[in-house]
Amino acid sequence: MGNTIEITPVVIPLKGTGVKVAVRTIVEGVGATEALIYWQLLTEQDQPILDGNLTLAEEPFEGLTGLSEVLTRIILDEFGNP
To answer: pTM for this structure?
Structure first.
């Protein structure tokens, strides 16, 4: 699948512990200002335990320095963590 990034372990009750996030970014059109991100939360054995789609707009992520930081923030926000 696209890029895989190791993260601080996230425990999902009844599903397991996610230690990696795999992402595929889909940008439509030249000059697009947002992208669709398909993500999977993976176990140590690369088994998916959660997945979803998110729209990534430029504005909410200004000031974040790298892809890892952006994706970590997206996943934490998705799970309702601060």
So the answer is: 0.63
